[in-house]
Design brief:
FAD/NAD-binding_dom (chains A, B), homodimer, FAD/NAD(P)-binding domain, about 450 residues, oxidoreductase (chains A, B), five-stranded parallel beta sheet, Flavoprotein oxidoreductase (chains A, B)
């Protein structure tokens, strides 16, 4: 008997799950129907800033697998088709063809929910004016690119100084705009501790990007032509020919909520380790619509990142296809850049540690990416948190130039393994003058952390 | 009562030990006398190829701390003074001032042996001819640089295709020489498996470096002026205006041997985890003169690397100074480059695994350093070994361009933690298009290794 798998969402998590399930089960065993309300499947949303900035020439380079390619693998991917209801009792989904308006029910034996995230668009006056753009999907990216061409002048305002905000600042700078980033918090990159965020702030200043902290937007004013003209904040008014919103996302779980599926404190779906929705034997969920276990804090978090979505899809597809795989959780690794400034973090920030009752020490060191005497050696600052008494590594943040970001992987693996900072000082990391000082910056931080743990008693 | 610490060897391990001991104990508690037979203290031997090649402008940039700086920290560092005998019964060392010839005995309460390694200089006819150079220390580097100026033509031959050999090939290329590397083995970089060495070979060809495998040198012929002219091998004769020997090193342990201290199969001193020489309560040893425990194979190895020497010194100094530290061992990480080709390895090669009775699977994948669509994405090849049945990671080798080498650190930490390749597939590594594909190349290899372990049964 052929079972039917229905997948809601045609991007990373959903289509990875479909593809992996198809690898394990042929069309005679498993029929796969996938619904995607947008125009594109399996694309890299993370690549949008680089397309907007001109580093990536064409939109289609961001598409990993087109609908036709999925269909050639016997996945019935229905584009521009939105799932509007979930009927768990009768195991079916209701969908609407967004072109024709036609609706229908499709039954399922197994269901994958990969509905992603939706942007947090604050309900401000003027937020929907022409010239104000989100950068959530490829259509958004194209609209923004078109808008850049229409802009009267070259003043761009980015709202929000998180990953998307700083990446879009680079992109707009690359397009010749004068860029102002307006930030609700005091320092950019709230995913870092404020002392590390301050380094990002200073570096952005150096790149010619104006970053204004503590400036929540109150309204967006338009000109006579209806296009955006000024962004007003509690801190002042900023002229703008184009505005990009990098104000975060929340899990897109309205269907799941209506169907009574379990959601966490961040409104993300809750799953078990096999990515099965808790309490539901034949429903899986993955990607930006779920919460994941943070292995360091022991709490669920919402971490919308393509790399997790792909892993979730892989795990779901294996389990749906009769194999076995789990997603144990995350340690909170993220890397980013603004021009030549690299920004990385993993594990807990100070406030995360406090929130779960952990006592900790912190150390901050400066070192270089290569031997000090080797050409191109670039400064980096490494901050490390270790648990008081046990010395267990809790988190690392790195801000620097070339070679800074991916060094955080050392700490990501050490966190996963539950290493102490003392154990880290003995790590046998790659050393040669073009690649590292004789003590890698992460080891320098670990050595100082050992001393701090001892001193804290 | 003031104790006296005697340190034999004024480079990385010895002077790190002395400096760390001094941090913990002032001159009123601990007198420190250090002997160095050369002209330089605490220098980066690993940096010599880059000085010879011109990336590093001046010799003194390679000196981390001069004799005067050590002396300013109350370390009685005696340069150009060779220790000629070790009298363990009477706890004293005999030294000779190489300038004046004066000899004397110096008593010790604690002793650190950091005598380093000496080059393996095969006893071939002509090996001592002018124009034939080792690159072991700064004097060698200066002699080679002088010799490059004196060379009649621009043909350089490098004997040996290990780390030093390939790095010197780059350096000589940088100085405008036509470079031939003569290698005893079939492929360069015997620290890699031959299939990965083949990639290095091909890349060196592409860089214009001729690499001749299976060509052990039989003699070196000189011209009428006495300078080197031709290198003869079993495979043929190669004209040479200058010759650089990269034929490896062995532990310099003649003093230790004469004193009856325990040596291993590679002639390196054997220590316990605190770097104390086995069976000797007041003698420590570290750096290139010791053998270290390979944590993956469980065997002792000789791994002459500055990064280990510095760690040894740190551990020894802590213990000598009344603190406590250990050096648990290595996993065999090494990184190198030839021009823009990056080469990295950690853990066991296939023959290492076989030698200790491990059954394993191997996988090799190609991926890129950045998202495929991001400018500068460079190909890399990752080979991974995992134990049969358990799936425990045994080793990783990487050959590629920018961003390849330091990725090996992910595997180095995973090896230290004893991770399986299955656990590795869930690692939360830094992802953003400028830094990695959505699946980091190491994760792509791990996924393939999981399948290979399963298939091997």
């Amino acid at each position: 008997m052929t079972e039917r798998l229905v997948v809601i969402g045609g991007d990373a998590a959903g289509m990875s799950a479909a593809s992996q399930a198809r690898r394990l089960k042929g069309p005679g065993e498993l029929e796969i129907v996938a619904f995607e309300r947008g125009h594109f499947s399996s694309y890299s949303a993370c690549g949008i800033p680089y397309w907007v900035g001109g580093d990536v020439a064409a939109r289609d380079e961001l598409i990993a697998r087109s609908p036709e390619e999925h269909r050639a693998r016997d996945i019935d991917l229905r584009m521009r088709t939105e799932v509007t209801a979930l009927d768990l009792d009768r195991q079916r989904v209701r969908s609407r063809d967004l072109e024709s308006g036609a609706e229908e029910w499709t039954g399922f034996d197994k269901l994958v929910i990969a509905t992603g995230a939706r942007p947090l668009r604050p309900p401000l006056p003027g937020i929907d004016a022409p010239g104000v753009h989100g950068v959530q999907n490829l259509d958004d990216g194209q609209a923004l690119l078109d808008s850049l061409g229409l802009a009267r002048g070259r003043r761009a305002v980015v709202v929000g100084a998180g990953y998307i905000g700083v990446e879009m600042a680079e992109a707009l700078l690359g397009r010749g705009f004068e860029v102002t980033v307006l930030n609700r918090g005091e320092q950019p990159m709230a995913t870092l501790d404020p002392d590390m965020g301050r380094l990002v702030h200073a570096a952005m200043d150096g790149l010619g990007i104006t970053t204004v902290g503590s400036s929540p937007v109150t309204k967006i004013l338009t000109g006579a032509d209806g296009r955006v003209r000024v962004v007003a904040t509690e801190a002042g008014e900023y002229p703008a020919d184009v505005v990009v919103l990098g104000t975060g996302v929340v899990p897109e779980t309205s269907l799941a909520r209506a169907a009574g599926l379990p959601l966490g404190v961040y409104d993300g779906l809750l799953t078990d380790l096999s990515m099965r929705v808790r309490g539901h034997g034949n429903i899986w969920a993955g990607g930006d619509c779920v919460e994941v276990l943070d292995l360091v804090s022991g709490r669920e978090r919402h971490v919308p990142l393509g790399t997790h979505a792909n892993k979730h899809g892989q795990v779901i597809g294996s389990n749906v296809g009769g194999g076995y795989a789990t997603f144990p959780g995350v340690v909170g690794t993220a890397v980013s850049k603004v021009c030549d400034l690299e920004i990385a973090r993993t594990g807990l920030r100070e406030k995360d540690a406090r929130a779960v009752g952990l006592q900790y020490v912190t150390v901050t060191i400066e070192s270089t990416s290569r031997a000090g005497y080797y050409p191109g050696a670039a400064l980096m600052t490494v901050k490390m948190l270790a648990e008081r008494r046990t010395g267990r590594l809790l988190g690392v943040q790195i801000v620097g130039r070339e070679g800074a970001a991916k060094r955080v992987d050392i700490a990501a693996v050490a966190l996963t393994a539950g290493m102490t900072v003392e154990a880290m000082t003995a790590l046998d990391l790659g050393y040669a003058p073009p690649f590292s000082p004789v003590w890698d910056p992460v080891l320098v931080a670990a050595r100082k952390a050992v001393a701090a743990v001892r001193a804290a008693g």
